[in-house]
What we know:
The protein has helices at residues 12-18, 25-104, 107-124, 157-169, 204-230, and strands spanning 133-139, 144-155, 175-185, 190-202. It has 231 residues and is of the alpha+beta class. The chain has two domains: 24-104; 105-211, Alpha-Beta Plaits. It is elongated, with a radius of gyration of 52 Å. It starts with 11 loop residues before the first helix and ends with a helix.
Amino acid sequence: MSAPGEAKAPGNGAVTRGRRRRFELRRDGLRAALVLGVLLAVNLVFWFVLVRPRQAEIALLRETKRTADVTEARARRQLEELRRVYRHAKAVQEGIRVFFEEMLSTREQRLVPFQRALTSVGEEFGVEPRQVGVSLETLAQEGIEVMTISFPIQGGYENLRRLLARLEALDQFLIVREVSLRGSDRGGRELQLNVAVETYFNAPWAREEEARIRAWKKKARKRGGRSRRRR
């Protein structure tokens, strides 16, 4: 028994409880491996269940976006091409309208101005009205009328060149269809030429009449076919 006031020395049990137990591989390695294995398994499950589907979804979305970008670029090119074709078609349509309605016009609208312009040229080159030949032909499918005017002129090459230049200077739509040699006078120094000039008139009535005739023939063929089947 110790005397009062004397410090008591700690026993072996107290020393053991006060110290931390150090990690020993042989003793604690299996437990640590199990803990790490559990953590790894949890991480793998987490990756397979949550991360991997998200990554696949993101990859799919990126691929879909790339495909959509390519499709959009192709669609934009096609749209621009369609717009270009549309503008070209509209320009062609407008050109056809101007050609038929303004340049050609109908015979009632343009015949008198055309005859006056051609008569002035004929008077300049000494063409007599009784020598002028006129013919008119209707092209029903095209919806136009063709007027051909032929007249003779006399002179050399310079006279013919002046005539063609005057015809080209007219504000009328015409085509010099033919220039033929009729003979020569004065030892071949002056030529006898016959000039044929064509012009065209818009004739929508002819196209409409042709369409009505075709429709009537088609109906007649159908009626004839039904009659033969009934027999």
